[in-house]
Amino acid sequence: MLLTALITLVVSVKWQKELFRDVEIDTTQPPYVFKCQLYDLTGVPPERQKIMVKGGLLKDDADWSTLGVKEGQKLMMMGTADEIVKPPEKGPVFMEDLPEEEQAVSLGHSAGLFNLGNTCYMNSTVQCLHSVPELKSALVKYSHSGRSNEVDQTSHMLTIATRDLFNELDKSGKAVAPMQFWMVLRKKYPQFGQMHNNYFMQQDAEECWTQLLYTLSQSLRSAGSSENPDAVKALFGVDLVSRVHCQESGEESSEAESVYSLKCHISQEVNHLHEGLKHGLKSELEKNSPSLGRSAIYLKESRINGLPRYLTIQFVRFFWKRESNQKAKILRKVDYPLELDVYDLCSDDLRKKLEAPRQLLRDEEGKKLGLKASGKGSTSKDSDVKMSEAEGSSNENRDPSNSTSNEGALSQETQVTGVYDLVAVLTHKGRSADSGHYVAWVKQESGKWIEYDDDNPIPQREEDITKLSGGGDWHMAYICMYKARVVPI
Protein backbone atom coordinates (compact mmCIF):
# COMPACT_ATOMS: atom_id res chain seq x y z
CA MET A 1 0.00 0.00 0.00
CA LEU A 2 1.30 3.45 -0.90
CA LEU A 3 1.26 5.78 2.10
CA THR A 4 0.22 9.41 1.77
CA ALA A 5 3.30 11.63 1.90
CA LEU A 6 3.73 13.55 5.13
CA ILE A 7 2.92 17.23 4.56
CA THR A 8 3.53 19.63 7.43
CA LEU A 9 2.25 23.19 7.63
CA VAL A 10 3.61 25.66 10.17
CA VAL A 11 1.04 28.21 11.38
CA SER A 12 0.51 30.59 14.29
CA VAL A 13 -2.54 30.48 16.54
CA LYS A 14 -4.06 33.53 18.28
CA TRP A 15 -5.97 32.73 21.46
CA GLN A 16 -7.13 35.51 23.79
CA LYS A 17 -4.05 37.70 24.34
CA GLU A 18 -1.55 34.99 23.44
CA LEU A 19 0.02 34.15 20.10
CA PHE A 20 1.47 30.67 19.64
CA ARG A 21 4.03 30.66 16.85
CA ASP A 22 5.41 27.77 14.81
CA VAL A 23 2.59 25.30 15.51
CA GLU A 24 2.92 22.33 13.15
CA ILE A 25 -0.06 20.79 11.37
CA ASP A 26 0.38 17.26 10.01
CA THR A 27 -2.17 17.34 7.18
CA THR A 28 -2.27 13.53 6.96
CA GLN A 29 -3.97 13.53 10.35
CA PRO A 30 -7.51 14.71 11.14
CA PRO A 31 -7.96 18.21 12.64
CA TYR A 32 -8.82 16.58 15.99
CA VAL A 33 -5.10 15.79 16.36
CA PHE A 34 -4.28 19.48 15.79
CA LYS A 35 -6.82 20.37 18.49
CA CYS A 36 -5.05 17.98 20.89
CA GLN A 37 -1.83 19.90 20.24
CA LEU A 38 -3.60 23.16 21.05
CA TYR A 39 -5.01 21.61 24.22
CA ASP A 40 -1.43 20.98 25.38
CA LEU A 41 -0.59 24.63 24.67
CA THR A 42 -3.70 26.37 25.98
CA GLY A 43 -5.54 24.00 28.30
CA VAL A 44 -8.70 24.40 26.18
CA PRO A 45 -10.24 20.92 25.64
CA PRO A 46 -10.79 20.00 21.96
CA GLU A 47 -14.58 19.99 22.35
CA ARG A 48 -14.49 23.64 23.51
CA GLN A 49 -12.22 24.91 20.76
CA LYS A 50 -13.67 27.10 18.00
CA ILE A 51 -11.06 27.61 15.25
CA MET A 52 -11.91 29.85 12.29
CA VAL A 53 -11.05 28.54 8.81
CA LYS A 54 -12.40 29.16 5.32
CA GLY A 55 -16.05 28.21 5.29
CA GLY A 56 -16.63 28.44 9.05
CA LEU A 57 -15.43 26.49 12.11
CA LEU A 58 -12.82 23.74 11.90
CA LYS A 59 -14.51 20.33 12.26
CA ASP A 60 -12.75 17.37 13.92
CA ASP A 61 -12.95 15.19 10.81
CA ALA A 62 -12.51 17.83 8.08
CA ASP A 63 -10.19 17.26 5.10
CA TRP A 64 -7.22 19.67 5.32
CA SER A 65 -6.88 19.74 1.52
CA THR A 66 -10.28 21.48 1.19
CA LEU A 67 -9.69 24.10 3.91
CA GLY A 68 -7.12 26.28 2.13
CA VAL A 69 -4.86 26.65 5.20
CA LYS A 70 -1.49 28.03 4.06
CA GLU A 71 2.05 28.02 5.40
CA GLY A 72 2.57 30.84 7.93
CA GLN A 73 -1.15 31.60 8.24
CA LYS A 74 -2.51 33.01 11.51
CA LEU A 75 -5.50 31.08 12.83
CA MET A 76 -7.93 32.44 15.42
CA MET A 77 -9.10 30.19 18.25
CA MET A 78 -11.82 30.82 20.82
CA GLY A 79 -12.63 28.76 23.90
CA THR A 80 -12.14 28.69 27.66
CA ALA A 81 -9.46 26.62 29.39
CA ASP A 82 -10.20 24.16 32.19
CA GLU A 83 -10.95 26.21 35.28
CA ILE A 84 -8.62 26.05 38.26
CA VAL A 85 -10.36 26.68 41.55
CA LYS A 86 -8.25 28.74 43.94
CA PRO A 87 -8.52 27.94 47.64
CA PRO A 88 -9.10 30.49 50.42
CA GLU A 89 -5.96 32.20 51.66
CA LYS A 90 -5.65 29.88 54.67
CA GLY A 91 -8.00 27.13 53.58
CA PRO A 92 -7.29 23.59 52.40
CA VAL A 93 -5.21 23.03 49.25
CA PHE A 94 -7.32 21.76 46.37
CA MET A 95 -5.92 19.25 43.91
CA GLU A 96 -6.52 21.65 41.01
CA ASP A 97 -4.11 24.16 42.58
CA LEU A 98 -1.21 21.73 42.81
CA PRO A 99 1.53 21.64 40.16
CA GLU A 100 0.66 19.14 37.41
CA GLU A 101 3.14 16.55 38.65
CA GLU A 102 1.54 16.71 42.11
CA GLN A 103 -1.94 16.51 40.59
CA ALA A 104 -1.05 13.17 39.02
CA VAL A 105 0.13 11.87 42.40
CA SER A 106 -3.05 13.11 44.12
CA LEU A 107 -5.28 11.44 41.54
CA GLY A 108 -3.65 8.11 42.36
CA HIS A 109 -3.13 7.29 38.71
CA SER A 110 -1.33 8.67 35.67
CA ALA A 111 -2.90 10.59 32.79
CA GLY A 112 -4.90 9.27 29.87
CA LEU A 113 -3.86 9.45 26.19
CA PHE A 114 -5.75 11.18 23.41
CA ASN A 115 -6.79 8.97 20.50
CA LEU A 116 -5.10 10.50 17.45
CA GLY A 117 -7.23 8.57 14.97
CA ASN A 118 -7.58 4.79 15.51
CA THR A 119 -4.60 4.80 17.90
CA CYS A 120 -6.34 3.00 20.79
CA TYR A 121 -4.12 -0.04 20.07
CA MET A 122 -1.06 2.14 20.73
CA ASN A 123 -2.54 3.96 23.75
CA SER A 124 -3.51 0.72 25.52
CA THR A 125 -0.05 -0.79 24.89
CA VAL A 126 1.69 2.31 26.26
CA GLN A 127 -0.51 2.38 29.39
CA CYS A 128 0.25 -1.26 30.23
CA LEU A 129 4.03 -0.95 29.75
CA HIS A 130 4.07 2.43 31.51
CA SER A 131 2.87 0.63 34.66
CA VAL A 132 6.22 -1.20 34.97
CA PRO A 133 8.41 0.97 37.27
CA GLU A 134 11.60 -0.97 36.46
CA LEU A 135 11.14 -0.25 32.75
CA LYS A 136 10.70 3.45 33.52
CA SER A 137 13.90 3.33 35.59
CA ALA A 138 15.86 1.77 32.72
CA LEU A 139 14.50 4.40 30.30
CA VAL A 140 15.41 7.28 32.63
CA LYS A 141 19.04 6.13 32.45
CA TYR A 142 18.92 6.16 28.64
CA SER A 143 20.29 9.45 27.30
CA HIS A 144 20.05 11.32 24.00
CA SER A 145 23.72 10.59 23.43
CA GLY A 146 23.40 6.98 24.56
CA ARG A 147 23.00 5.50 21.09
CA SER A 148 25.68 3.06 20.02
CA ASN A 149 26.56 1.99 16.49
CA GLU A 150 24.52 -1.19 17.02
CA VAL A 151 21.23 0.74 17.16
CA ASP A 152 19.72 2.57 14.19
CA GLN A 153 18.59 6.18 14.52
CA THR A 154 14.84 5.46 14.43
CA SER A 155 15.15 2.86 17.21
CA HIS A 156 17.09 5.40 19.26
CA MET A 157 14.45 8.07 18.66
CA LEU A 158 11.59 5.69 19.52
CA THR A 159 13.32 4.85 22.81
CA ILE A 160 13.73 8.56 23.59
CA ALA A 161 10.08 9.18 22.67
CA THR A 162 8.95 6.33 24.95
CA ARG A 163 11.01 7.69 27.82
CA ASP A 164 9.62 11.21 27.33
CA LEU A 165 6.01 9.99 26.99
CA PHE A 166 6.28 7.90 30.18
CA ASN A 167 7.64 10.96 31.97
CA GLU A 168 4.81 13.17 30.66
CA LEU A 169 2.18 10.63 31.75
CA ASP A 170 3.62 10.66 35.28
CA LYS A 171 3.70 14.45 35.56
CA SER A 172 0.55 15.54 33.75
CA GLY A 173 -2.72 16.15 35.54
CA LYS A 174 -4.58 16.12 32.22
CA ALA A 175 -4.75 13.88 29.16
CA VAL A 176 -1.62 13.73 26.99
CA ALA A 177 -1.46 13.86 23.17
CA PRO A 178 1.29 11.32 22.23
CA MET A 179 2.20 13.15 19.01
CA GLN A 180 5.97 12.67 18.96
CA PHE A 181 5.76 9.04 20.03
CA TRP A 182 3.23 8.21 17.32
CA MET A 183 5.23 9.95 14.59
CA VAL A 184 8.42 8.08 15.51
CA LEU A 185 6.55 4.75 15.88
CA ARG A 186 5.22 5.12 12.34
CA LYS A 187 8.66 6.02 11.04
CA LYS A 188 10.23 2.97 12.68
CA TYR A 189 7.38 0.60 11.79
CA PRO A 190 5.57 1.90 8.64
CA GLN A 191 2.75 -0.66 8.98
CA PHE A 192 1.32 1.51 11.78
CA GLY A 193 0.99 4.36 9.27
CA GLN A 194 -1.30 2.48 6.86
CA MET A 195 -4.22 4.58 5.66
CA HIS A 196 -7.63 3.88 4.16
CA ASN A 197 -9.86 6.64 2.73
CA ASN A 198 -7.46 9.25 4.19
CA TYR A 199 -7.78 7.84 7.73
CA PHE A 200 -5.22 5.87 9.70
CA MET A 201 -6.25 2.24 10.00
CA GLN A 202 -6.79 0.29 13.20
CA GLN A 203 -3.78 -1.91 14.01
CA ASP A 204 -3.10 -4.94 16.19
CA ALA A 205 -2.16 -4.06 19.80
CA GLU A 206 -0.12 -7.25 20.19
CA GLU A 207 2.01 -6.30 17.17
CA CYS A 208 2.56 -2.83 18.64
CA TRP A 209 3.48 -4.35 22.04
CA THR A 210 5.92 -6.82 20.47
CA GLN A 211 7.60 -4.27 18.18
CA LEU A 212 7.97 -1.68 20.93
CA LEU A 213 9.48 -4.16 23.39
CA TYR A 214 11.87 -5.45 20.73
CA THR A 215 13.08 -1.90 20.00
CA LEU A 216 13.54 -1.10 23.70
CA SER A 217 15.41 -4.36 24.25
CA GLN A 218 17.90 -3.43 21.50
CA SER A 219 18.38 0.16 22.67
CA LEU A 220 18.61 -0.49 26.40
CA ARG A 221 20.98 -3.42 25.88
CA SER A 222 23.30 -1.31 23.73
CA ALA A 223 23.21 1.52 26.28
CA GLY A 224 25.14 -1.01 28.29
CA SER A 225 25.19 -1.11 32.03
CA SER A 226 27.41 -3.57 33.81
CA GLU A 227 24.63 -3.87 36.41
CA ASN A 228 21.99 -4.84 33.89
CA PRO A 229 23.20 -5.69 30.38
CA ASP A 230 19.73 -6.71 29.20
CA ALA A 231 17.00 -4.92 31.14
CA VAL A 232 14.06 -5.86 28.90
CA LYS A 233 14.92 -9.57 28.84
CA ALA A 234 15.29 -9.57 32.62
CA LEU A 235 11.91 -7.91 33.00
CA PHE A 236 9.89 -9.75 30.33
CA GLY A 237 11.99 -12.58 28.84
CA VAL A 238 10.77 -16.16 29.30
CA ASP A 239 13.40 -18.86 28.72
CA LEU A 240 12.00 -22.01 27.13
CA VAL A 241 13.58 -25.42 26.70
CA SER A 242 11.93 -27.70 24.14
CA ARG A 243 11.98 -31.39 23.25
CA VAL A 244 11.50 -31.93 19.52
CA HIS A 245 10.46 -35.50 18.72
CA CYS A 246 9.57 -37.34 15.51
CA GLN A 247 7.40 -40.36 16.32
CA GLU A 248 7.84 -41.79 12.82
CA SER A 249 11.65 -41.87 12.86
CA GLY A 250 12.35 -41.77 16.58
CA GLU A 251 14.64 -38.74 16.14
CA GLU A 252 14.82 -36.41 19.09
CA SER A 253 16.59 -33.13 19.81
CA SER A 254 16.37 -30.24 22.26
CA GLU A 255 16.10 -26.51 21.64
CA ALA A 256 16.40 -23.41 23.80
CA GLU A 257 14.89 -20.00 23.09
CA SER A 258 13.79 -16.82 24.82
CA VAL A 259 10.41 -15.17 24.17
CA TYR A 260 8.68 -12.07 25.53
CA SER A 261 5.27 -13.69 25.99
CA LEU A 262 3.52 -17.02 26.41
CA LYS A 263 0.61 -17.92 24.15
CA CYS A 264 -2.79 -19.04 25.39
CA HIS A 265 -4.22 -21.15 22.57
CA ILE A 266 -8.01 -21.23 22.44
CA SER A 267 -10.00 -24.28 21.34
CA GLN A 268 -13.24 -26.04 22.29
CA GLU A 269 -11.41 -27.78 25.14
CA VAL A 270 -9.99 -24.57 26.64
CA ASN A 271 -12.07 -22.90 29.36
CA HIS A 272 -9.25 -21.53 31.52
CA LEU A 273 -5.97 -19.72 30.94
CA HIS A 274 -3.92 -22.58 32.38
CA GLU A 275 -5.36 -25.04 29.85
CA GLY A 276 -4.62 -22.62 27.02
CA LEU A 277 -1.02 -22.18 28.19
CA LYS A 278 -0.48 -25.95 28.15
CA HIS A 279 -1.80 -26.05 24.58
CA GLY A 280 0.49 -23.13 23.69
CA LEU A 281 3.57 -25.02 24.88
CA LYS A 282 2.87 -27.85 22.43
CA SER A 283 3.04 -27.55 18.67
CA GLU A 284 3.51 -29.59 15.53
CA LEU A 285 6.01 -28.66 12.84
CA GLU A 286 6.96 -30.17 9.55
CA LYS A 287 10.66 -30.34 8.72
CA ASN A 288 13.19 -32.53 6.94
CA SER A 289 14.09 -35.81 8.65
CA PRO A 290 17.71 -36.84 7.96
CA SER A 291 17.02 -40.50 8.73
CA LEU A 292 13.86 -40.68 6.55
CA GLY A 293 15.31 -38.52 3.79
CA ARG A 294 12.09 -36.50 3.51
CA SER A 295 9.93 -34.11 5.48
CA ALA A 296 8.09 -35.46 8.51
CA ILE A 297 5.91 -34.25 11.38
CA TYR A 298 7.70 -33.39 14.62
CA LEU A 299 6.06 -32.71 17.98
CA LYS A 300 7.58 -29.81 19.93
CA GLU A 301 6.96 -29.79 23.69
CA SER A 302 8.26 -26.81 25.63
CA ARG A 303 8.82 -26.08 29.32
CA ILE A 304 9.64 -22.80 31.06
CA ASN A 305 13.30 -22.79 32.08
CA GLY A 306 13.64 -19.19 33.28
CA LEU A 307 11.02 -16.78 34.62
CA PRO A 308 10.89 -12.98 34.26
CA ARG A 309 9.80 -10.25 36.64
CA TYR A 310 6.70 -9.64 34.50
CA LEU A 311 4.98 -12.51 32.71
CA THR A 312 3.08 -11.49 29.57
CA ILE A 313 0.41 -13.77 28.13
CA GLN A 314 -1.27 -13.31 24.75
CA PHE A 315 -4.66 -14.88 24.13
CA VAL A 316 -4.50 -16.14 20.54
CA ARG A 317 -7.93 -14.79 19.62
CA PHE A 318 -7.32 -13.88 15.97
CA PHE A 319 -6.81 -16.30 13.10
CA TRP A 320 -6.77 -16.00 9.32
CA LYS A 321 -10.08 -17.02 7.73
CA ARG A 322 -9.37 -18.19 4.20
CA GLU A 323 -12.92 -17.98 2.89
CA SER A 324 -13.27 -14.29 3.81
CA ASN A 325 -9.54 -13.54 3.41
CA GLN A 326 -9.34 -11.64 6.70
CA LYS A 327 -8.56 -12.02 10.38
CA ALA A 328 -11.42 -13.48 12.40
CA LYS A 329 -11.84 -13.40 16.16
CA ILE A 330 -12.46 -16.27 18.59
CA LEU A 331 -15.08 -14.96 21.03
CA ARG A 332 -14.95 -17.99 23.36
CA LYS A 333 -14.86 -17.23 27.08
CA VAL A 334 -11.52 -18.12 28.70
CA ASP A 335 -11.30 -17.43 32.44
CA TYR A 336 -8.05 -16.13 33.91
CA PRO A 337 -7.06 -15.73 37.59
CA LEU A 338 -5.89 -12.75 39.62
CA GLU A 339 -3.14 -15.05 40.93
CA LEU A 340 -1.35 -17.37 38.50
CA ASP A 341 0.99 -20.21 39.48
CA VAL A 342 3.08 -21.57 36.58
CA TYR A 343 5.09 -24.12 38.60
CA ASP A 344 3.66 -27.12 36.69
CA LEU A 345 4.66 -25.51 33.36
CA CYS A 346 8.34 -25.30 34.40
CA SER A 347 11.24 -27.62 33.60
CA ASP A 348 12.55 -30.00 36.27
CA ASP A 349 15.67 -27.84 36.69
CA LEU A 350 13.67 -24.68 37.31
CA ARG A 351 11.28 -26.46 39.68
CA LYS A 352 14.23 -27.40 41.88
CA LYS A 353 15.38 -23.76 41.97
CA LEU A 354 11.86 -22.65 42.89
CA GLU A 355 11.40 -25.03 45.85
CA ALA A 356 13.17 -22.91 48.48
CA PRO A 357 11.66 -19.54 47.48
CA ARG A 358 8.18 -21.11 47.26
CA GLN A 359 8.56 -22.48 50.79
CA LEU A 360 9.65 -19.07 52.03
CA LEU A 361 6.64 -17.53 50.28
CA ARG A 362 4.33 -20.02 52.02
CA ASP A 363 5.97 -19.23 55.36
CA GLU A 364 5.58 -15.47 54.85
CA GLU A 365 1.94 -15.76 53.80
CA GLY A 366 1.24 -18.22 56.61
CA LYS A 367 2.78 -15.79 59.07
CA LYS A 368 0.32 -13.10 57.94
CA LEU A 369 -2.47 -15.55 58.75
CA GLY A 370 -0.94 -16.30 62.15
CA LEU A 371 0.46 -19.71 61.17
CA LYS A 372 3.84 -21.03 62.33
CA ALA A 373 6.62 -21.13 59.71
CA SER A 374 7.84 -24.56 58.61
CA GLY A 375 11.47 -23.52 59.00
CA LYS A 376 12.39 -24.74 55.53
CA GLY A 377 14.16 -22.22 53.36
CA SER A 378 13.89 -19.38 55.86
CA THR A 379 16.31 -20.23 58.68
CA SER A 380 19.11 -18.00 57.43
CA LYS A 381 16.86 -15.06 56.61
CA ASP A 382 15.24 -12.35 58.61
CA SER A 383 11.66 -13.56 58.77
CA ASP A 384 10.49 -10.02 59.38
CA VAL A 385 11.42 -8.87 55.86
CA LYS A 386 8.23 -7.57 54.34
CA MET A 387 7.03 -9.12 51.10
CA SER A 388 6.11 -5.68 49.82
CA GLU A 389 9.75 -4.62 50.02
CA ALA A 390 10.83 -7.65 48.05
CA GLU A 391 8.17 -7.00 45.43
CA GLY A 392 9.66 -3.58 44.68
CA SER A 393 12.72 -5.13 43.11
CA SER A 394 13.59 -5.95 39.51
CA ASN A 395 15.15 -8.94 37.82
CA GLU A 396 18.79 -8.37 36.92
CA ASN A 397 20.89 -11.47 37.67
CA ARG A 398 21.97 -13.79 34.91
CA ASP A 399 20.17 -16.63 36.68
CA PRO A 400 16.59 -16.15 35.46
CA SER A 401 15.18 -17.42 38.73
CA ASN A 402 16.89 -14.60 40.65
CA SER A 403 16.41 -10.85 40.58
CA THR A 404 18.17 -7.87 42.08
CA SER A 405 16.63 -4.49 42.76
CA ASN A 406 17.69 -1.28 41.06
CA GLU A 407 14.79 0.62 42.59
CA GLY A 408 15.51 3.05 45.40
CA ALA A 409 18.61 3.46 47.50
CA LEU A 410 18.35 0.09 49.24
CA SER A 411 19.19 -2.97 47.15
CA GLN A 412 17.27 -6.13 48.02
CA GLU A 413 18.15 -9.46 46.41
CA THR A 414 15.10 -11.52 45.58
CA GLN A 415 13.95 -14.70 43.89
CA VAL A 416 10.83 -15.33 41.84
CA THR A 417 8.53 -18.08 43.09
CA GLY A 418 6.51 -19.05 40.04
CA VAL A 419 3.52 -17.25 41.54
CA TYR A 420 2.32 -14.12 39.73
CA ASP A 421 -0.27 -11.40 40.42
CA LEU A 422 -2.31 -9.80 37.64
CA VAL A 423 -1.32 -6.14 37.15
CA ALA A 424 -2.59 -5.22 33.66
CA VAL A 425 -5.09 -6.43 31.07
CA LEU A 426 -5.30 -5.17 27.49
CA THR A 427 -8.73 -5.86 26.01
CA HIS A 428 -10.30 -5.76 22.57
CA LYS A 429 -13.97 -5.06 21.88
CA GLY A 430 -15.39 -6.01 18.50
CA ARG A 431 -15.35 -8.94 16.10
CA SER A 432 -12.45 -8.01 13.80
CA ALA A 433 -8.74 -7.36 14.38
CA ASP A 434 -8.90 -4.49 11.89
CA SER A 435 -11.63 -2.65 13.75
CA GLY A 436 -13.13 -2.51 17.24
CA HIS A 437 -11.58 -0.80 20.24
CA TYR A 438 -8.65 -1.49 22.58
CA VAL A 439 -8.56 -0.49 26.26
CA ALA A 440 -5.98 -0.93 29.07
CA TRP A 441 -6.97 -1.95 32.61
CA VAL A 442 -4.06 -1.28 34.97
CA LYS A 443 -3.58 -2.00 38.68
CA GLN A 444 -2.12 0.99 40.55
CA GLU A 445 0.43 0.85 43.37
CA SER A 446 -2.46 1.53 45.75
CA GLY A 447 -4.07 -1.73 44.61
CA LYS A 448 -6.92 0.05 42.81
CA TRP A 449 -7.68 -0.66 39.17
CA ILE A 450 -8.01 2.02 36.48
CA GLU A 451 -9.55 1.50 33.05
CA TYR A 452 -7.66 3.65 30.53
CA ASP A 453 -10.13 4.23 27.72
CA ASP A 454 -7.87 6.55 25.70
CA ASP A 455 -8.03 9.98 27.41
CA ASN A 456 -10.60 8.84 29.99
CA PRO A 457 -9.23 7.04 33.10
CA ILE A 458 -12.09 5.29 34.95
CA PRO A 459 -11.77 3.62 38.40
CA GLN A 460 -12.86 -0.03 38.39
CA ARG A 461 -13.47 -2.74 40.98
CA GLU A 462 -11.15 -5.75 41.09
CA GLU A 463 -14.06 -8.17 40.71
CA ASP A 464 -14.89 -6.53 37.36
CA ILE A 465 -11.42 -7.23 35.95
CA THR A 466 -11.90 -11.01 35.75
CA LYS A 467 -15.19 -10.48 33.88
CA LEU A 468 -13.18 -9.45 30.79
CA SER A 469 -12.87 -13.10 29.82
CA GLY A 470 -14.85 -13.11 26.59
CA GLY A 471 -17.93 -14.96 25.41
CA GLY A 472 -19.71 -11.99 23.79
CA ASP A 473 -19.23 -8.54 22.31
CA TRP A 474 -17.97 -6.92 25.53
CA HIS A 475 -14.28 -6.14 26.08
CA MET A 476 -12.29 -9.37 26.36
CA ALA A 477 -8.71 -10.01 27.45
CA TYR A 478 -6.19 -10.06 24.60
CA ILE A 479 -3.00 -9.57 26.64
CA CYS A 480 -2.55 -10.16 30.39
CA MET A 481 0.52 -8.99 32.29
CA TYR A 482 1.38 -10.61 35.63
CA LYS A 483 3.95 -9.44 38.18
CA ALA A 484 6.14 -11.98 39.99
CA ARG A 485 5.57 -12.51 43.68
CA VAL A 486 9.11 -12.61 45.01
CA VAL A 487 10.89 -13.40 48.27
CA PRO A 488 14.23 -12.23 49.69
CA ILE A 489 17.11 -14.63 49.07
UniProtKB/TrEMBL annotation:
USP domain boundaries: 111-485
CDD domains: Peptidase_C19A, Ubl_USP14_like
Polar residues compositional bias, start-end: 391-412
Catalysis performed (reactions): Thiol-dependent hydrolysis of ester, thioester, amide, peptide and isopeptide bonds formed by the C-terminal Gly of ubiquitin (a 76-residue protein attached to proteins as an intracellular targeting signal)
Keyword tags: Hydrolase, Protease, Signal, Thiol protease, Ubl conjugation pathway
Recorded superkingdom: Eukaryota
One Pfam entry name: ubiquitin
Spans through the membrane: none
UniProt record, GO biological process: proteasome-mediated ubiquitin-dependent protein catabolic process; protein deubiquitination; regulation of proteasomal protein catabolic process
Endpoints of the signal sequence: 1-15
Protein family: Belongs to the peptidase C19 family.
Annotated function: Recognizes and hydrolyzes the peptide bond at the C-terminal Gly of ubiquitin. Involved in the processing of poly-ubiquitin precursors as well as that of ubiquitinated proteins.
UniProt-listed PANTHER family: UBIQUITIN CARBOXYL-TERMINAL HYDROLASE, UBIQUITIN CARBOXYL-TERMINAL HYDROLASE 14
UniProt protein name: Ubiquitin carboxyl-terminal hydrolase
